[in-house]
Request: fold
Amino acid sequence: QRVLPSPMEPRAVLVSPDPVGGGFTVYSSTQVPHFLRDIVAMVVGIPDSKLRVIAPDVGGGFGAKLNVYAEEALVLALARRLKKPVKWTETRSDHHVATTHGRGQVQRMSVAATREGRILGMKVDLLADMGAYLQLLTPGIAVFGAFTYCGLYDFGSYSFTCRGVFTNLTPTDAYRGAGRSEAAYAHERIMDDLARELGMDPAELRLRNLHPKFLEPRTVPSGVQYDSGDYEPCMREAMRLVDYDAVRAEQRQRRAAGDPVQLGIGIGNFTESGGLSPSKVAAGVRLQSGGWEAATVRMLVSGKVEVVTGTSPHGQGHETAWSQIAADALGVHPDDVEVLHSDTAIAPFGRDTYGSRSLPVGGVSVHLAAGKVVDKARTIAAHLLEASEADLSFEGGRFAVGGTDAGITIQEVAMAAYLADNLPEGMEPLLTAENAFDPPNFTWPFGTHICVMEVDVETGFSRIRRFVAVDDCGHVVNPEIVAGQLHGGIAQGIGQAMFEEATFDAAGNPTTATLADYQVPAASDLPHIELGSTVTPSPTNPMGVKGIGESGAIGSSPAVVNAVIDAVAHLGVTHIDMPTTPQKVWRSIQEAR
Reply:
């Protein structure tokens, strides 16, 4: 199954020459302005110092805009030759055939287990469709997913084989949850198959095999280190919210009555590697790029704060979250913080936004830079107050000398640093700090998604009755942003599970070149999504955060497909390929009969 990323805004690029300085300004709806600058400058043969890339408010990306495309280099080359601005905008039909597709894998998986349901080992044989040529991460997506097939489960042996094949189709590359979504789908489908073979409840089988709680890194059979995990409370909370036992009882009643509308329950347990990525890991898989992220925090003479970040948001809410992080550290109001991003002239260094990395790498870098500002301000405050730094406390944006009424606000310190006429010996003027954070390990957010599905066995039509998602992304900076990310990701996971598929005829011609043929879910197709959470801090960064951007798209698809199959399993149906359209469900029932 191939899927189309389908962001609200297709790709677009405008290049404007600078007749005075001889450089070029590139406006692009990209996720990666820094990557774009570096790669296009090399391709076209101009110094990167002559190339300014701006990513304006971008209408979604979902991994498709992580790539640097030929059109971006071509438009730059034309602007250089014509000495005039040149613009190119992708149509929706262009997007369906020229922008990278997602998924496109055939997975064969086997599992060894005892009769009591203890998993002993897992074997994966993966065939990955590369498309006609490689894009930025095409072969890496399947390999990246190899590390997450172990899921939340504690077992000893693991084997992974991957073969990439070229086809005459559009290249595949990153799509929300890249690699990890495919892995979660496979291991959760086989968990249901194993439970059915053993005659066990699927939830009981999963609970029996969860890793015990761990708060320090733990190596799993795929060779990676999970940072921390406490999986059982998360899964049990999801079961409580959905009232699992009551739904199972209703399912038995409907089956006994021969109800034409049967009930299914699907579980999607998952973990994913977030915080992409430690630079040594990036080098190991030949990404040709460090995984650090840069940030600068400045206290201005007005007392306001500027945050410059290398992350490039396109709907994730970085402006809000980074303002909160800086404001919390500096003791100011978030409204007094301005976040500058997505412009290589303002933020010359950055690794951009993808792979659930922004908060656990970029946000942490903002936190550390703000901490450096406070440290410098503390030294200046101690000098101005004629006190020892050890005697100063800092709360609510004010340094206070213990046991006295003496104190000074951080805004007053910023003014003193700007005037620079009464600073400690050797202290540089201005209250500003830079930071580049390179994480020591991935973060590993996790969760349990449970779907309750009604399936009309006479028509194959499926309707989600309830969808519960309990996620653990470590400490939460902004709950509303977390909820928004989960809602969007779950919608995409449901779309993949029930509606979406890029198809081609026998000659390789696309048959889903418009939205009239390719069905993305509408609001009316989606259920009310019930969210819950647990908190297991990550030890890989001082904020204890893990990231949330892709989790919704990872746990939802297997939960939905498992629910559809569970609803008709008593009729002999054991598997339905995504998407589980009414035609496929009806045909599977007829063939099983």
Summary: The chain has four domains: 2-92, 105-171, 228-274+442-593, 289-437. The longest strand covers residues 119-131.
